[in-house]
Design a protein that fits this description.
Blueprint (H helix, E strand, L loop, with lengths): L1 H18 L8 H36 L6 H32 L11
Length: about 110
């Protein structure tokens, strides 16, 4: 039940991106555009959530700092930075992929 409470708001938040008042994708290019948009939107949400959790952890651990916990605090900071780096890297890879697949134009733009 806890997992359901965590996942449901994310699904509700991303549901308009899926619906977008449009029909189903008709071509492979439209399907690829939809998938890239969904993953990009989910990545932005995950990055924002990770930043909030990271700063919450910083403030929480700094307020409960004891003599025996510097290693724990250092490990928390290190892995938090690594996780944020990986998420931003995925976002960049998706951007690179969408610009490569769609001839230098991000999805949703018009060739001119």
């Amino acid at each position: 039940m806890k997992v359901f409470r965590i996942i449901l708001p994310g699904i509700v938040f991303l549901l308009p991106a899926v619906a977008a008042a449009q029909g189903a994708p008709q071509t492979l290019g439209e399907l690829a555009t939809l998938v890239v948009k969904l993953i990009s939107a989910a990545t932005v949400v995950l990055i924002a959530f990770a930043i909030v959790v990271y700063f919450y952890g910083i403030f929480y651990n700094m307020s409960t700092f004891t003599e025996g916990s510097p290693e724990k605090l250092r490990a928390y900071f290190f892995w938090g930075i690594i996780a944020l780096f990986i998420m931003v890297s995925i976002w960049g890879i998706l951007s690179l992929l969408s610009q490569t697949v769609f001839n230098g134009n991000p999805p949703g733009t018009i060739n001119g």
